[in-house]
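Sorry, I am new here, but would you mind making up a protein's amino acid sequence and the tokens describing how it folds?
***
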Amino acid sequence: MATLGPDSRPLSQLAPGSVQTNISSLGSCNNMPMNRGLERALEEAVNSGILNLSARKLKEFPRTAANHDLTDTVDADLSRNRLTDIPSEVCHFIALETLNLYHNCIRTIPDSIITLQSLTSLDLSRNQIVVLPACLCSLPLRVLNASNNKLGALPESIGQLTDLMDLDISCNEITTLPPHVGRLKSLRELSVRRNFLCTLPEELAELPLVKLDVSCNKVTSVPLCYRKMTQLQSLQLENNPLQSPPAQICIKGRVHIFKYLSMEACRSEKMADSLYLPVMDGLSHPSTGSSEDIEQSRKQDTDSESAATMETRDYQPQSPRTRTA
């Protein structure tokens, strides 16, 4: 009877040489689909401009990619691999618009990334990045996801990302937001969830934010100027030790939060007016009493001035010679 495929006899009945041959053939069969799939992905990228190398356990950029012209790549997905650096080959894709590096082991971002002057979307989430370099802020980014890293702060040059619409820096170790975030005039969505923020910058009130998530921080108060964020539709404040507004107000949602901020602002303005008005009253009404008293006081002042003028006119100092005579 004919047999199909590898020899089905037990290994103990096979010759040592044939055992080694069968094991080698099995290993090569397991490697072939991976290599064939990688080559197919590179070939498709040449034709479509979309490079998908996600979930391939890559520790470095494929060396065989040098055999393909990938300079026209506009979308590169290198997520779910084992990369420790952003491959230098990727920084040569000058037409690249979208770069996905989610779930790798990347620690630093090279300065060479500045060559990607067409890049509008960058996903760096779930890596081990400690610092966002200033050169990153020179890119025309509209979407930047740096969540689930080890960031301790944002660079001051973050304000240069004037086209940025979506910024996600949640699940990091950030303690403060620089006032330069107020220059992100296109920003619509901002997430700083799960950080170590104690205060919120007033500059955020100047942005056209639609969504703001500051949940799971250490914020105790919301600036009163946030009530002016008229475009804001979603405001997440839960899991903060809030005192103003109190937690029972925050639970009710954005409308009640803004109402509380507006009432507190009115109260502060009234307190300021009450301290300012007595001073103004004293300056604008120097004398009190009836109109007759005021008129009499004015007449006395006039008489005093006339008397002083006459005394000055009558006083003639004597010369030393006259005093001697």
Q: What stands out?
A: The chain has a mean pLDDT of 83. The two ends are 166 Å apart (CA to CA). The longest strand covers residues 50-52.
